[in-house]
Structures are given as C-alpha cells and as structure tokens.
Amino acid sequence: MGQQTDLCRGGPVQRKSLNQMSQPEIDAFVAAVKAVSNDPANRWGEYAKLHAEVYQGVHVNPKFLPWHRIFVRKMEQFLQEKNPSVTIPYWDWAQYSQNPENDPIFTDRIAGGDGNPGNNDCISNGQFADLKVDYTHEQNSNARCIKRRMTKKDANGLVWTSSDTIDNMLNSASFKDFAESIEQGSHGIIHNCIGSEFAGHASPNDPIFYLHHGFIDKIWYDWQKRNP
C-alpha cells in the first residue's frame, strides 16, 4: 500500500457523520459495500486478509494512524468505483456512549445488532446480515458471516468513549501522546466492546470497521488542525 500514488484521485472528499445521513444516502453506501463484496476481484475479503497479515506491523507504533488513513481511503475508492457519489461516513460512537445499544447504527436500517452466540456470533439483522464474507482469521471456524458479541465494557472494565474523553485526547501536546491515547484507548475499546471477530485481526470484514476508523481519522484531523 505504501507505493500507491492515487489516493487523492478525484480531489478531496467530504465525509458525513452517519447520524446526519439520509436513508437514501445510507442505502447507497450499503449497496456500494455489497457491490465490492460481491465483485470477483474480492477486494473486501482481500482487505480483511491484508489487515490481518500486517496487523503486528501497523498497530502499537507510529504507523497506526497514517496506515489506517490510507487503508480506509483505498476502500473508499473501491466503493466509488461502484458509485462515485459514495463516501465512507464516520460513526461518532461518543454520542451514545452511555447507552450504545440505542445507537442507530445497530438498527435494522443500518448495520444490525449483536451476533448470536449460538450461531458462531453471526448477526441476523441489519443491511449487512447477508454480506459475503470470504476470509476469517479465527482458527477452527468455518463460519463466514459478520460476527459480533457486544458488551458495554471491555475485558479491562473500560467503557465506551465519551465526548469528554475525545476532548482530552485533542488536548494532547504531541503526536506521540495523541496517537497512543486514541489507539490504546478509544480505538481499542470500541473494537473490544463490539467483540467477537471485530476484536480480532480480520475486523474489516464488518463494514462498521470503516465507519469506526473514519471517526478515528476525523479525530486525528481535528487534532492536526489544532497542531499544524
């Protein structure tokens, strides 16, 4: 991915908050995701596999933010090949941090809710319940589905990130402090609280991954504006 030079193809894009999108805009995004997933090129599965293969090299180090910015942008370009009007929305998980189960993203009209522990944690509702999944990083699992096992706290007892926590991160004086706080804090907490495969190396199987990292990227952009 480091040799790609077309990331700005078509000029700058403006991403919307998921909660500010109309249903037709959401449906267009969903259709583009399914088109990429069903395409014989299999970029959806290949990107989940890529993330798993390079995981150790792009996490818990300074590469985390820039690598994932490029990763999300490349997937966005694949979606735009299917529909040029589509951008990846960002998911502001802080808005519903006190009651994440009430977040609109987990409704039928968007990404669906929790997985079924009795069926390999596969989700059964939402617009991605039938998404084509070709890759899993889990051993001893033949299930090909979007998998979640949601909790309000991660294994360390940390809860979903609030807007106050984001404000504190934005006040970080150095890139090192900011990058470490967002990756090891908010970023990891959301992955772990959604759980199952979303807490693992193949988390890009779930479209929520790109919306989650879209918000991580927005927070970084906000920090960059404060620290030119």
Automatic annotation (TrEMBL):
Highest taxon of the lineage: Eukaryota
Keywords: Copper, Metal-binding
InterPro entries registered for this protein in UniProt: Di-copper_centre_dom_sf, Tyrosinase/Hemocyanin, Tyrosinase_Cu-bd
All copies of domain Tyrosinase copper-binding, residue ranges: 59-76, 206-217
Gene3D superfamilies given in the database record: Di-copper center containing domain from catechol oxidase
Pfam (any one): Tyrosinase
Molecular function as annotated in GO: metal ion binding; oxidoreductase activity
Matching PANTHER family: TYROSINASE FAMILY MEMBER, TYROSINASE-LIKE PROTEIN TYR-1-RELATED
Protein name: Di-copper centre-containing protein
